Amino acid sequence: MVRGLAHRGGDGAAIHEEQHCTLGANRLALMDPERGHQPYRFESLPLVAVFNGEIYNHNELRNALEKKGHVFRNTCDGEVILPLYAEYGLDCAARLSGMFAVAIWNAAERALVLFRDFLGMKPLYFRLHDHGVAFASEARFLREAFPGQVRLRHEAFQETAVFGHPLPPGTFFEEIEEVPPGCGIVFRRDGKREFCFRKFPEFRDKFERSEEILGHLDAALRESVARHSAADRPVGAYLSSGIDSTLATFLHLRNPGTKKGAVYSLAFPGEEEDESERIAPEIKPFIESHEVVSFAAADLEHLRTAVRYCEQPFLSGIAAALIHLAGRVRSRGEKCVVSGEGADELFWGYRHFRLSAVREVWKRRPRLLQALGRVFLKMGSGIPGYEGRELLRILDCPSAEVEADFGFFSLRSRNWYRAGDTWRCMRNEQRDWRGLERIYAGYGEAVRRRCGEIPQNPLEAAAAADLLVRLPSWVLRLGDRCAMARGVEVRMPYLDDAVVDRALRVPDRWKISPLEEKICLRRVARTYLAEETAQRPKRPLLLPPAFLAVPGRPEWIEEYLSDEMTRKAGIFRPEAVRRLREVLRSENAERIGVRDTDAQQCAFFVLTAHLFFQEFSDRVAGW
Predict the structure, then answer these.
(1) For residue 132, is it left (φ>0), alpha (ψ between -120 and 50) or beta?
(2) Read out DSSP for 87-106?
(3) What is the pLDDT of residue 391?
C-alpha cells in the first residue's frame, strides 16, 4: 500500500510495525526536508503518528508546547502533532489550522485515531473488517486490505450523473467510507466512536460597517497567503485571468518571505487570445517565470490516469487538463503551488448564487416567475432530458413542496439539466425519476449532517451546500488527486480558517447582487489591482466546445464509446451511447455546440465510466 501511494510523496517512505498496528507514510518534503521524517514518535509515551498535508500554525503551536516542556528535534510542521495530542487528547484536532489527514496509534490504549481537516482538503478513507481497520489517502488501495472482494456501490454512478461526485461519506466501493471533514474516528477493539472537532459555523455575527468588512478580509487574506507561501522549497502558483487566482498570486509573489517558483496557466486550442495576454499588468513585474501550458486533444490521454487516481468517472475532461498541468510543474522540479480555489464558494462567485439572488427578488412576483418558467419550458421542450412538469416545478419558486424538500433552489436548478441528459443514457432500472428524487434528498441529508439544519436563507443554504458537500467532494478532491498524481501539493489560501471565518461574517449584500458577484473580494482587490482587473467576470475552467470531436484525440476513445464496451459494462443503454457517437462524429459538431453541459458532458460521463469499469471491475464484485 505504501509503495502504491508513492506518488503522494516521492521524498522517502517509512513503515512503523508493532504487535497490533502497522503505519506507513510517503513524504513530500517541503518543510525541513533533511530531518522531518515520518512516522513521528513521542519520547515518553507509546504514540506514533503519520500525516499528509500542511499545518500552517505549527510555529505558534511549537512555541506554546515548548513552554510546557516539550523538546522538538526538527522544524517540520508535523512534529507538533503528537505533543499536542499528549497535552489535549482528541481536542488537539481543533487546535490545528491547515489541510491535513492524521493517523495516531496509541499503543497504551490500543486505539487508532483518524481525523481530517475542517473543509476536507486532504482525503482520508477507511475500511472496517472483522480483522481490524485499514486506512489510506486513496480508497482503491483498501480493496485488498482484507480477505473477500469489495462490492461496487451502484448508487455512486447515479449520484455522479447528477452532482459530479458520489455523496459523502460513500465512495464507489460499498465497504469503504471517507472520514468526514472536520471529524475523526477512534477505533478500539470494542468498536468505533466518531467525534466532530469543528462544526460548520453559523452565518451570524455579521460585520456592520464597510471599513470593518474590507479591513478584516484584507488582513486575513494577506496573513493567509504568507502562511501558505512558507516552505523550504520554491512555491509556484496556478494563475488564470480571473480575480481569485490573480489576487492570490499577486499577494503570494509580493510576500517578502516567499521562495518564488514559476507561475503556471492552462491554455486550450482555439481560444481567442493567449492566457499570457490576459494576465493583469500589475502582476507581471513580480513574475520571474511564467509558463502557459497548452492542453490539446491528444492530451486527453491523461483521462486514464485521472480516472485511476480520482477513483471515479467525470462529467467533463478537466481532470485530464489538471493532471497535464501538474505534470509540467513537477517536470520543472517544483512540488508546491498556491491556487485560488475556494473563493467562489466563500464569496458566492458561481452563477447559481446570482440565480438565487434573482429568485429572491422574483419571489415577490410569483406570477412573473411562473410565466417565465413556461417560456423556458417551451424553449427547452425539444432538448433530450427535459421533463416538462419537473422543469416547471423547479422554476415555480412559490412551490411549498420544493421549499420543504430541498430548501435550496440553486442546488436543484443548477443540476437538473445535467441530470436529465445523463439520466437518459443510463439503463432503465437505474434511471427512474423517483430514484432522482431520492438522490436530491440524499444531498440535503449530507448537508444536514455537517451543519445540523439547512439555513433558512436560500443564499446561505446554497453556500452551505457548496462548502460542505460540493467543495470537498468535487473541487478539492479533483485538485488534490490530480496534483498529487504527479507529486505536487496545491495550497489554497482562501480556505484558511481565518479567511473562512471572516467570509461567513460578510453580509449577503456585500457578496452578491443580481448584477454582480464576489462584491467584497473585488473591493479588496482594488487595493492592489486596477479597476479593470478587479471587475473581470468569472471565466470558468471548461474545455472548449466539441473538444471530444476534434482531430488528434486518442484512438482508444472510440473503443470506450463502442457498443461492445457498452454491453460489457452494462451501465448505459447502447442506443443512447450510439446517438452520442453520432453527434461527436458529425461534421457539424462544433457548429451545434457539443459542450460540457450537453452531449459532450454525457460523452465524458460514458467514456470515463467505462474507463472506471476497465480499471476496477476485475477487483470488485457486484457488476
Answers:
(1) left
(2) HHGGGHHHH--EEEEEEEEE
(3) 41
* Dihedral sign of CA atoms 244, 117, 323, 222 in order: positive
Q: Which residues contact 315 (CB under 8 A, 6 or more apart)?
A: 160, 161, 164, 418, 422, 596, 601, 604, 605
H helix runs in 153-209, sequence order: 155-163
CB 237 within 8 A of CB 244: no
The Cα–Cα gap between 86 and 41 comes to 11
Q: Residue 71, SS3?
A: coil
Q: Which residues make Cβ contacts (< 8 Å) with residue 41, sequence separation at least 6?
A: 16, 47, 48, 82
Q: Quick one: which of 562, 550, 611 has its CA closest to 320?
A: 611
**What's the pLDDT score for residue 539?**
76
Amino acid at 126: F
Which residue ranges in the chain fall short of pLDDT 50?
Answer: 380-410, 413, 416-417, 591-596, 622
Cell 457498443, residue? 563
What is the distance between the alpha carbons of residues 438 and 418, in angstroms, rounded to a whole number? 16
Helix (H) or strand (E) holding 429: none
* Sign of CA pseudo-dihedral 27, 28, 31, 35: positive
Read off the pLDDT of residues 528-549 as tens digits, 9 standing for 90 and up: 999 999 998 877 777 877 788 7
CA–CA separation, 143 vs 394, rounded Å?
40
Q: CA 585 to CA 588: how far, in whole Å?
A: 8
| Distant-in-sequence, close-in-space partners of 293: CB < 8 Å, separation ≥ 6 | 264, 265, 266, 267, 324, 325, 328
Query: Of the candidates 530, 532, 505, which has an alpha carbon nearest to the alpha carbon of residue 520?
Result: 505
Contacts of 80-85 spanning 24+ positions with Cβ under 8 A: 80/55, 81/40, 81/49, 81/51, 81/55, 82/40, 82/41, 82/42, 82/45, 82/47, 82/48, 82/49, 83/42, 85/47, 85/49, 85/113
* CA nearest neighbour of 224 among 253, 242, 254, 248: 248
DSSP readout, 244-265? Answer: HHHHHHHHHHH-TT--EEEEEE
Taking phi over 0 as left and psi of -120 to 50 as alpha, with beta for the rest, 564 belongs to alpha
Whether the Cβ atoms of residue 219 and residue 501 lie closer than 8 Å to each other:
no
DSSP-assigned states of every residue in 439-480:
HHHHHHHHHHHHHSS--SSHHHHHHHHIIIIIIIIIIHHHHH
SS3 495: helix
Cα–Cα distance measured from residue 213 to residue 224, given in angstroms and rounded to the nearest whole number: 16
Number of H helices, E strands in the chain: 25, 20
Q: Would the CA dihedral through 28, 37, 226, 501 be positive or negative? A: positive
Give the C-alpha separation, 544 to 336, whole Å. 28
User: CA-to-CA distance for 195 and 456, rounded, in angstroms?
Assistant: 26
d(CA 496, CA 223): 9
Q: How far apart are CA 70 and CA 82, in angstroms?
A: 10
Contact 121, 480 (CB under 8 A): yes
Dig out the grid coordinates for 211 from the structure. 471599513
Tell me whether the omega of the peptide bond preceding residue 540 falls within 30 degrees of 0, making it cis.
no
Cell 413542496, residue located: 401
Query: What pLDDT, on a 0 to 100 scale, did the predictor assign at position 430?
Result: 57
Instruction: Annotate 196-226 with b (16+ C-beta within 10 A) or e (fewer).
Output: bbbebeebeeebeeeeebbebbbebbbbbbb
First to last CA, the chain: 25
Can you tell me the distance from the alpha carbon of 91 to that of 197, in angstroms, rounded to the nearest whole number? 7
Q: How many CA atoms lie within 13 A of 211 on its CB side?
A: 0
Predicted pLDDT at 487: 95
